[in-house]
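Review this:
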Amino acid sequence: MIKVIAIGNSFSVDAVEYLRDIAAAGGVDMLVGNLYIGGCSLKTHWNNACSDAKAYIYYRFDKNTREETSDVSIREALESEEWDIVTMQQASYDSGVYGTYEPYLSNLSRYVRNIRPMAEQVIHQTWAYEIDSDHEGFLNYNKDQLIMFNALKDAYSKAAKSLGARIIPCGEAIQKARASHLFDYANGGKSLCRDGFHASIPQGRYLLGAVWYEFLTGKSILENPFVPYDENTSSSPTLEELAVLKQCAHEAVLQYR
């Protein structure tokens, strides 16, 4: 079994929503944990670690169960399982501002290492906002998607280098998919964001889960049979969309190896 936990926010919620099901379809037993506070930054994560704050909603998914627990601390979640991988990420609005990462990332890394010394620490690269996003954090990047993507790509690269960590390239995969006519929002394609910044359901979330699956397992997503289904809209990606999303996930992971 692969055991992975994210110290994250709503972007990690998007990333792991379909991960367990994708893994199961690929014959992989996976336990997925997610420590969630909406919009949570590395600074807040570190402050919460210092105070042992029971501030998180903790999501725990395995092949049989889906649990949600409130008022959980980072320490409690880390101590609850022998985690193989712990992921960390910056809040999306500061993702391209490297000055906001430190000293919080390094401090958090040491904290995690003290509790789970055998776990691999990994950087989760988040994604750029949609071109017409009204998120106030988009102003950090002159409301320009490409500027935001290049800035976050550079910042996450520096963060990973500082820890000697690998990157889960979700932002890269999203940007690759946006180059397809299917998801070229500026020219009539579907947006991969449902509100200008969170991942669309099911296409955007599926793409993120595909990236995590291939990164974590080393198995190709291209032949994975899982197809996501959104009960709210009674919809799934088309076969053409699935093919593009799988290819973009695959290419992004290969690019970052």
Remarks:
- The beta strands are 2-8, 30-36, 56-61, 66-72, 85-88, 120-125, 166-169.
